[in-house]
Description:
Layout: H1 2-18, E1 26-29, E2 32-37, E3 42-51, E4 57-64, E5 66-69, E6 72-75, E7 87-88, E8 93-95, E9 100-108, E10 116-126, E11 140-150, E12 158-165, E13 171-172, E14 179-185, E15 194-200, E16 206-212, E17 224-227, E18 230-234, E19 241-252, E20 257-268, H2 270-314
Amino acid sequence: MKKFFASAVFGLLALAVFLPKTSFAITVGPDKLEYTLAPGATVTGTLFVLNEGTTPQTLTPSFETFTETNGTKQFSAGTPSDLTNWFVLPSSTTLAAGESENIPFTLNVPQGAPAGGHFAVIWWNTAPAGAGMGDTSIVTRAGVLVYLNVTGQIDEAASVTHFAPTGGGHLFDFFPTNFDITFSDTGNDYLQPVGNIVIKDMFGLTDATFSVNKDGGEQILPQSAKDLPVTVESPSGAFGFGVYRAELALHYGQTNQEIDDSYTFVVITWQVVLLILIVLLLVLFGIARGVRKYNQWVIRKATAGLKVRDEEERE
């Protein structure tokens, strides 16, 4: 029985080693297509596809819409985009193992196309060569994101749904160096908000500044929200004490609209508290010592006065 088990294990290992390995992988580019076009406009370009697998592959394009939830793209499986009929692409292309190709495309924006943002992902799908009906196959796909802004009557609207130091709260024992901002796009076009946070102390003096979504790297799709990155520009020192106000100012859209928000918090740093206690103790010690010396002086004065009076009475 042991010999049989050992032979079986050896046979499985031999199969794992000597059976031909097949890999299926594709690379597409660019990662993103981004256009601002008027209704009736046409643009052409190319998409790069590479078969990184070890067997020939036939790639076919398909379109899906997508949305974003806090920066995470949610693809709507089986839901075609309106861009499906606006793009002209080959129905398929076959690539040998390791072969690449630049595939031409034409984007035609129809007359009467609704203004605002239109979004889709162009998937390039593949399956193992020779896979037929009933066969088990590994489907591989890679996508190119399309961000199209159609000019016209665009509704740019947004709000800040959350603004606070990371972790929340209003009382800190250190100066906060990170802030969370959730930006919600409620219009019909994608937005790239940029701005800053200015921290002011109780006297109105600027204590620190932060950049929000520096260079507009994050964009928010219509009817979605995303957390914006915050970068420290001029940080405050490690110590802080008192009441502070964080003032947020964001700009977005073609009309450079502005959103303002604020957050008040209190910083009580233990080092500062310790220093204040030490100063108070020194002051109290000084006062006590001064009072004691004053009392001693009063007593000496009174004693000296009594002695003088006694001497006068004796005379």
